[in-house]
Amino acid sequence: MSETAGWGTLDVGTIPQATVRTGVTVPLRFADGYTTTARVLTFNGLVDGREHLALGLGDWERAVRTTPLVRPHSECLTGDVFGSQRCDCGPQLREAVERIAEPGGLLLYLRQEGRGIGLYAKLDAYALQDAGLDTYEANVALGRGEDERDYTAAAQMLLALGAARIRLLSNNPDKAAQLEARGVQVTERIPTGVHLSAANLRYLATKATHTAHTLDLPGL
């Protein structure tokens, strides 16, 4: 669980306002041939200074006036780009884009590699997992938190776009808790599919048992 999870509801006025910096239209094509178009939005004033993106999919501008479907997706170079099967990130990203585009909504692409510890540290954690530790134990063994992600910037992005009420596409209860604490009302939490492989079974099972991710896995 993130070190910031479990906070009570914050005074939204304590969260600095972000503003939309740039919006550009980008046609997307995935390896399986699925295509769609995204409005890719950048921001000024994000609290962590990172270059997070919001992808407006489908009729997203109409959707944000009601209750858009939103997925905060943490960057995963190995899974999103190289198709690593040690996690489920790449398939989740592909699934989320199509599911959000249909009703209209937002995908937040958050620069939080390795649950916030960075790419090199994530690969160091993989080496420790190969030696027997689970995904959370490995982070701790490196002197890092189990999950260092903070969703303040995600809340800033949503509020800057007028999305104060959302339906959240996520298996992770910490995302809902943190967004709620930062002034974004989560009216519904919708699980993603289960993208299981021989290489990620232990990883997914640990997420389900250790941090209550909504995953319907065999034997659990």
Automatic annotation (TrEMBL):
<keyword id="KW-0547">Nucleotide-binding</keyword>
<feature type="binding site">
    <location>
        <begin position="71"/>
        <end position="75"/>
    </location>
    <ligand>
        <name>GTP</name>
    </ligand>
</feature>
<feature type="binding site">
    <location>
        <begin position="113"/>
        <end position="115"/>
    </location>
    <ligand>
        <name>GTP</name>
    </ligand>
</feature>
<dbReference type="InterPro" id="IPR000926">
    <property type="entry name" value="RibA"/>
</dbReference>
<dbReference type="InterPro" id="IPR032677">
    <property type="entry name" value="GTP_cyclohydro_II"/>
</dbReference>
<feature type="binding site">
    <location>
        <position position="76"/>
    </location>
    <ligand>
        <name>Zn(2+)</name>
    </ligand>
</feature>
<keyword id="KW-0686">Riboflavin biosynthesis</keyword>
<feature type="binding site">
    <location>
        <position position="170"/>
    </location>
    <ligand>
        <name>GTP</name>
    </ligand>
</feature>
<comment type="similarity">
    <text>In the N-terminal section; belongs to the DHBP synthase family.</text>
</comment>
<keyword id="KW-0378">Hydrolase</keyword>
<feature type="binding site">
    <location>
        <position position="135"/>
    </location>
    <ligand>
        <name>GTP</name>
    </ligand>
</feature>
<protein>
    <recommendedName>
        <fullName>GTP cyclohydrolase-2</fullName>
        <ecNumber>3.5.4.25</ecNumber>
    </recommendedName>
</protein>
<keyword id="KW-0479">Metal-binding</keyword>
<feature type="active site" description="Nucleophile">
    <location>
        <position position="149"/>
    </location>
</feature>
<dbReference type="GO" id="GO:0003935">
    <property type="term" value="F:GTP cyclohydrolase II activity"/>
</dbReference>
<feature type="binding site">
    <location>
        <position position="175"/>
    </location>
    <ligand>
        <name>GTP</name>
    </ligand>
</feature>
<dbReference type="GO" id="GO:0009231">
    <property type="term" value="P:riboflavin biosynthetic process"/>
</dbReference>
<feature type="binding site">
    <location>
        <position position="92"/>
    </location>
    <ligand>
        <name>GTP</name>
    </ligand>
</feature>
<comment type="pathway">
    <text>Cofactor biosynthesis; riboflavin biosynthesis; 5-amino-6-(D-ribitylamino)uracil from GTP: step 1/4.</text>
</comment>
<comment type="similarity">
    <text>Belongs to the GTP cyclohydrolase II family.</text>
</comment>
<dbReference type="GO" id="GO:0005829">
    <property type="term" value="C:cytosol"/>
</dbReference>
<feature type="active site" description="Proton acceptor">
    <location>
        <position position="147"/>
    </location>
</feature>
<dbReference type="Pfam" id="PF00925">
    <property type="entry name" value="GTP_cyclohydro2"/>
</dbReference>
<keyword id="KW-0862">Zinc</keyword>
<feature type="binding site">
    <location>
        <position position="89"/>
    </location>
    <ligand>
        <name>Zn(2+)</name>
    </ligand>
</feature>
<feature type="domain" description="GTP cyclohydrolase II">
    <location>
        <begin position="36"/>
        <end position="191"/>
    </location>
</feature>
<keyword id="KW-0342">GTP-binding</keyword>
<dbReference type="GO" id="GO:0008270">
    <property type="term" value="F:zinc ion binding"/>
</dbReference>
<comment type="function">
    <text>Catalyzes the conversion of GTP to 2,5-diamino-6-ribosylamino-4(3H)-pyrimidinone 5'-phosphate (DARP), formate and pyrophosphate.</text>
</comment>
<dbReference type="InterPro" id="IPR036144">
    <property type="entry name" value="RibA-like_sf"/>
</dbReference>
<feature type="binding site">
    <location>
        <position position="87"/>
    </location>
    <ligand>
        <name>Zn(2+)</name>
    </ligand>
</feature>
<dbReference type="GO" id="GO:0005525">
    <property type="term" value="F:GTP binding"/>
</dbReference>
